[in-house]
Task: structure prediction
Amino acid sequence: MNKLTIGWLYPDLLNLYGDKGNIECLINRCMWRGIRSTVVKISLKTKLTASVVKPINLLFMGGGPDSSQVKLYEDFTKNKRSFIKEHIDHGYPSLFICGGYQLLGKYYKPFQGSAIEGLSVFDMYTEHFGRDKFRCVGNIVVDISSQPFGGQGLKRIVGFENHGGRTYLGEKAVPLGTVVSGYGNNGEDKTEGVVFKNTFGTYLHGPVLPKNPHFADYLISKALKTTPPSLDDTLEVLTHRNSLNLGR
Amino acid sequence: MQFPLFFTIILGKVTSYVSGILRLGSGSTWPGHIGLSVRPSLFEDFVSSFSKGVVFITGTNGKTTVSHMIVSILRLSGFRVVHNEAGANLLNGIASSLIKSSPIFRKSFFDIGVFEVDEGALPSLLSKFPPNYLIMLNLTRDQLDRFGEIDITAQKWEESLSQLERPPVVIVNSLDSRLVQLGKVLSQNGLSVHTFGEDSSLSLGGFRALNEDAVRRVCILLKVAPKYIETGLSQFRFVFGRGEEIPFHNRTIKIFLSKNPSSFNENLKLLRDKGSFPHILFILNDNIPDGRDVSWIYDISSDYLRKVCTGRSVYVSGLRAWDMALRLKYAKVPLSSVKEIQVDINKIIEIIVKNTSSGDCIAVLPTYSAMLMVRKIVAGSCIK
Result:
């Protein structure tokens, strides 16, 4: 079987919210199936040569503080843009969380100052309203039955959101799911996240993959282009179910 | 229109007494809360109450331990000290300790005030109750949903300090690069800045050695005789959930408060190296004092978790016991090591007593509210 090669964007700058647990989850779920995996760390200084880029079949970018996002912005939009867009357009899976998710939209408008251009992969924009609107913080439950991995078994994903920016989807954008409990993209239209081909953007920390094993396995299956054998997910499912009733 | 001071103090003392009698458990914050509501200028009344000055200790980890160490040394050397010993470190907690220590009709007069101050509350407290010395221990990720970003916290510290007419002497951890940088900026703004932790041999002693160095630095500035400093440090016993040992049913329970990745990792290192605890209990809550977002548990070293848990009997409890158990699984802790996952802390302690023998030692790694609960069950008290 193929090897899972995860391209991890800016692990040194964007590692604030436990999101590296997502990497650990993917690697372990492969290991337990006897599937080899490796992580390619892509940071500010990384040169994206063909040998670096070619093996990558899954892309991941976590969340982080504003100061980190400022540091990586120029590199992200200049040096990493074409690699990221190609990976996404070819249908390889990717997961972008919080800040990374926002940067894949058309733009991010901060409370003060002009809009910051994104990669325009997703048909959406994000705006921060300063103190005029409250910060979206708390446990969140999202109905993902519209997704291919939401069909049987677990029909939801669970996590924790913490964002000041509010994301508004355009006509062409497909949300990841519908908010059952929590705020989601903007606290108004009950959408959460976005999907484009096999690329997912979401505000869910938690981290999102360990207790949403159906989501983790979907990303793995898209990367390896095959459905991996199932695992004993008793603990994952019990944890997931416990999170359905946490309240805000 | 505000209440006169003597009346405010009476009100505060009555509140403290009543909440103690009724075991309401908030006796360390209500007096201050009520006091500040009826007399908003309360802190001003105490600004000149300390002949040798006021010390603030702030940072993510170590505030309680360092402040207790300083206080025990100062008391050894004969100073009269006011201290928010229960660890209530927001404005209402500090106001409470001022009210409780104050005489009603005479002017309050002590030698030194030593207060641990919450990192988020420091900026607003500084303008109302400026200290003479400020120890900055460290600034790391703590409750993610509460502060959002540590850069903003450091910035707010700098802004509020630079606005003071008579800023304190600042003592900064030389091993925390963010704080060292902050120290440089403050120095440029004319503040007196000292450092602790330069001695490279300190790194072998971990948190404890570093904390002791901070304590020495401020005690020297306060002109405490060295003999009291060294005696105080050597006699110091852990407090309140920070390495505290409590006998229970012929077993020994040792509590290691683990409220964020850095303190969790330090505690795991201690357990990995010392190795005398065959049983370990993790308790993960997500109440407000613990932080509602538990994603941080994935920032605990997987390596340390695996090494500490392998070969031990592991128990998991707390409101988010399931998340913690799952975290252990992804840290590659063999599931055979995990003996029980039980949300109810009372029940897990019963189970542990049943599964252990007389003389056994159990290490408990709880988040903050879980630590208070464990202390209540095991030692019979929530807050001293």
